[in-house]
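HUMAN:
Could you generate one sequence with tokenized structure?
ASSISTANT:
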Amino acid sequence: MKVAVVYNPLSAESTRLSAHVADWLRTRYIDVWRGVSHEGRGSGALECSDLIVALGGDGTVLRAARLAIRCDVPVLPVALGHLNFMAELTPETLYNGLDTFLNGGGWLDKRTMIEATVRHRDGETHAAVVALNEVLVARGEINRVLVVDVEVYDAHVTTYHADGVLVATATGSTAYALASGGPIIDPRSQALVLVPVAAHLTTIPSLVLHEDAQVTLTVRSRHPAAFAADGREPIALHDGDTVVVRRSQQTCTFARVYPPSTFYARLPQRLRRDP
């Protein structure tokens, strides 16, 4: 067996724990690759891995997930950051959890992903981008409202005047979508959710969509806008440009130790805002 350990180099705790985990695995005669996500992208080290352990917050897990889907490897997230909706293990439960999973216990949690294609009005089309959490069309200037037409399948649904519009997966429903007033969806669901960001006088604050829905977002504003997927490098958008979003055929697999009910049992604590 080979295990990849991905850590956040900006976190001293993540860096320290990743070294300890790598040593712990090696004492069990497991081949280990340890590094940060961009190192994994530039090497073939993950292609023969059986598991990726991601030590950090949800941002670290998103970066590990982009590596994992290339090689169809499950990700085991360990909560070290401020936002940890994707992780069930903590540093205190990590080793028992790893031991359980490596000995054939646990289960595989397959998560829906979405893909988006940016089409400019001049005919240029970008390659489809795949995301685990959400894709976003947002304003490019801080003091300008963005106007976005929304179609689901081929039906015009609404026109948002907002800071932005996002389409999220069930996994992403507890991220930016939740912060923007969207609903929480069971993370194993294949449904998508449409949520405007700071919308002005809208009759449709959010929508839960069928898993096969196709959403088209068209910019109707002379002011600059931008597209981004899971917080990655944005693509500039202008009046008449469209973003077509649908469920991806790719999925991301998480390695789990505890039963699915754990998500609900821990939800109140994760949503609590400490003063």
